[in-house]
């Protein structure tokens, strides 16, 4: 008797999506930057490129597979999300990404099917996938992932309660929406890394026999942030969170800490194919994992790069886009030990300036000095050059919209 097949999902663009999933992808985006010093073995990769191309190119290049993939794709909300990098000044706020798909849910499936296939192919035999969605798409994704991974690879549907309710959200004449869903799959049932996590018992807790509890605490279940000991409110509802970068849809570091600690080991490769503000990469670095962060967006690269530099990570950047080689509206002038930077009124404020020795055309830019402004509305005026910096320089300017310019200076 033949084994029953699992249900399949059909939508108008399925045949084309399958053809795209089977077609070869583009080459890996060129290596453009190296951060963290020449002697350090870079622990991470930041790739500005479509994630299907990046994942299939890494696989084709014989790179080691991923031990863990956390994917937080657009949820098909129909919205355009704006990056707000400056405090109190939204004039230059750029679009971070558009979360609208022609054809709505069908369009989302057209885009996601080849990417889910690529994520499955990129996983190690002992690897795990966490796919973060909400009710817009999660049920369709579950059927697709059962097809791609096999139904036995499905492990859990994690419900992440977003947090306390206030304001506009509570005005809906309905049950108030208050959770995201994270689908957890493994590549091979029974072989994936899993480090169980525990919550502490409440102070004074006694067992039914009146004795104090033994063991490591309460094992964490699949409903997160829904009991007093488990505090994991979304930073999106915390207006004063110091974690916020201004990148829309940014997720909590604590959420990624939980996932990475449970489903990977130190030294493992943790990949985020929808990297956004770089949360996964930053947390993976902190927990001693290697990271691969992929995103198509300019704002994503700018924010992730700055966050990773601030966290002390060594990493390389691969960028599929062409970078301007002139200073555009900005003025650059060497003055003794310094570099004087001017920004005319109306030009987007500069957010990051990097300086390093002039690199040969075939070599990545390896800055020895940088100034990151982050979330301030003021531009960068003067940059102190590294002591003894003589000779030709390369200067890289990144504005608040994430637009990058790489300029040679004598
Ligand atoms: C919901 S956000 C991710 C936020 C992220 N988890 C964080 O903590 O900041 C989704 C991201 O997917 C990116 N994206 C959308 N389609 C993509 C594609 N085909 N390849 C790579 N990145 C993509 C968008 O630019 C956006 O930054």
Distance between the termini: 76 Å
By DSSP (H or I, 4+ residues per run), the number of helices equals 7
User: How would you characterize the largest beta sheet?
Assistant: 10 strands, mixed
Domain count, please report it: 2
Tell the overall outline.
globular
Number of strands: 21
SSE pattern? HEEHEEEHEHEEEEEHEHEHEEEEEEEE
By helix and strand content, what is the structural category? alpha/beta
Roughly what fraction of the amino acids lie in strands?
25-35%
Q: Remind me, CATH topology of the largest domain?
A: Rossmann fold
Q: Ranges with pLDDT <50 over ≥5 residues?
A: 87-91
List its traits.
20% helix; alpha/beta; single chain; 410 residues; Immunoglobulin-like; binds S-adenosylmethionine; Rossmann fold; 4-stranded antiparallel β-sheet; 7 helices
In short:
This protein is of the alpha/beta class and 410 residues long. The protein is 20% helix and 27% strand. Strands 1-14-2-13-12-3-6-8-7-11 form a 10-stranded mixed beta sheet. Strands 18-17-20-21 form a 4-stranded antiparallel beta sheet, with helices on one face.
